Amino acid sequence: MSTAADSGTRAGAKDGPEGEDAGGAKVNPAPESGGERYDAHFRVWRGDAEGGGLRDFTVEVNEGEVVLDIIHRLQATQAPDLAVRWNCKAGKCGSCSAEINGRPRLMCMTRMSVFDRAETITVTPLRAFPVVRDLVTDVGFNYTKAREVPSFIPPQGLGPGEYRMQQEDVGRSQEFRKCIECFLCQDTCHVVRDHEENKPAFAGPRFLMRVAELDMHPLDAAEESGLDRKTSAQDTHGLGYCNITKCCTEVCPEGIKITDNALIPLKERAADRKYDPLVWLGNKIRRRA
């Protein structure tokens, strides 16, 4: 866990189209005088695993700052024991995930200019995971699910430097590798967000995307090794729980089309494997051969 005083600037800001931030949200115009400061009203959750509540703060905001800048200023001036997880402050490490006005976001990528100056900004920990303290949550659930996904199985007979892939196949999985594991998609998915009892059976969108990436890999030798990724996606990782609401796609800071490009194709492959009579017959013939 890191703490820091006010940095006053934001590293690695990703600009969206004019009038919008990187997530497509409307940006309020900068003050005509330029560089103007104002006081913002923040409501930050304070507490631990035993319980807690929202605490109100009034804090100065400078032009160009992001929510993480303000949290750092609160640490430096009003709440030195405020716990928050962060690292790169550039939208690349995924550490500073939180819920801002009820929406899962990266604090370092949420500009203060997207909010009305009179608006009270509420910052709370990720709701789907147990609270450790203040804005820090225990995301160990995700690492448990990561270990349940069998890794890439290299094909027999190919040595280092001998792998060959079509550019189309490279591009398909490249999108999935942009994931920074901020776990915003895991947090917003209502299958686990609103139903704690589903966690043992459901891997969540981030790790179903990993299964899809491996299943689409043309050189993955899972089936030759006796592993059916399509069947395990359904039976082991809970693919059937996903009802493709696309909420995971909406909150992804990297713009990965998780639902359209990973989950729906994986569902189609799993359904074909289980219910398509021609696929079933082909599998029978291959096994006998």
Automatic annotation (TrEMBL):
<dbReference type="GO" id="GO:0016491">
    <property type="term" value="F:oxidoreductase activity"/>
</dbReference>
<dbReference type="GO" id="GO:0051539">
    <property type="term" value="F:4 iron, 4 sulfur cluster binding"/>
</dbReference>
<dbReference type="InterPro" id="IPR009051">
    <property type="entry name" value="Helical_ferredxn"/>
</dbReference>
<dbReference type="Pfam" id="PF13183">
    <property type="entry name" value="Fer4_8"/>
</dbReference>
<dbReference type="Pfam" id="PF13085">
    <property type="entry name" value="Fer2_3"/>
</dbReference>
<dbReference type="InterPro" id="IPR036010">
    <property type="entry name" value="2Fe-2S_ferredoxin-like_sf"/>
</dbReference>
<protein>
    <submittedName>
        <fullName>Fumarate reductase iron-sulfur subunit</fullName>
    </submittedName>
</protein>
<keyword id="KW-0001">2Fe-2S</keyword>
<keyword id="KW-0560">Oxidoreductase</keyword>
<keyword id="KW-0004">4Fe-4S</keyword>
<keyword id="KW-0479">Metal-binding</keyword>
<dbReference type="InterPro" id="IPR001041">
    <property type="entry name" value="2Fe-2S_ferredoxin-type"/>
</dbReference>
<comment type="similarity">
    <text>Belongs to the succinate dehydrogenase/fumarate reductase iron-sulfur protein family.</text>
</comment>
<dbReference type="InterPro" id="IPR012675">
    <property type="entry name" value="Beta-grasp_dom_sf"/>
</dbReference>
<dbReference type="InterPro" id="IPR006058">
    <property type="entry name" value="2Fe2S_fd_BS"/>
</dbReference>
<comment type="pathway">
    <text>Carbohydrate metabolism; tricarboxylic acid cycle.</text>
</comment>
<dbReference type="GO" id="GO:0022904">
    <property type="term" value="P:respiratory electron transport chain"/>
</dbReference>
<dbReference type="GO" id="GO:0046872">
    <property type="term" value="F:metal ion binding"/>
</dbReference>
<dbReference type="GO" id="GO:0006099">
    <property type="term" value="P:tricarboxylic acid cycle"/>
</dbReference>
<dbReference type="GO" id="GO:0005886">
    <property type="term" value="C:plasma membrane"/>
</dbReference>
<dbReference type="GO" id="GO:0051537">
    <property type="term" value="F:2 iron, 2 sulfur cluster binding"/>
</dbReference>
<keyword id="KW-0408">Iron</keyword>
<keyword id="KW-0411">Iron-sulfur</keyword>
<feature type="region of interest" description="Disordered">
    <location>
        <begin position="1"/>
        <end position="35"/>
    </location>
</feature>
<dbReference type="InterPro" id="IPR025192">
    <property type="entry name" value="Succ_DH/fum_Rdtase_N"/>
</dbReference>
<dbReference type="InterPro" id="IPR050573">
    <property type="entry name" value="SDH/FRD_Iron-Sulfur"/>
</dbReference>
<dbReference type="GO" id="GO:0009055">
    <property type="term" value="F:electron transfer activity"/>
</dbReference>
<feature type="domain" description="2Fe-2S ferredoxin-type">
    <location>
        <begin position="40"/>
        <end position="127"/>
    </location>
</feature>
<dbReference type="InterPro" id="IPR017896">
    <property type="entry name" value="4Fe4S_Fe-S-bd"/>
</dbReference>
<dbReference type="InterPro" id="IPR004489">
    <property type="entry name" value="Succ_DH/fum_Rdtase_Fe-S"/>
</dbReference>
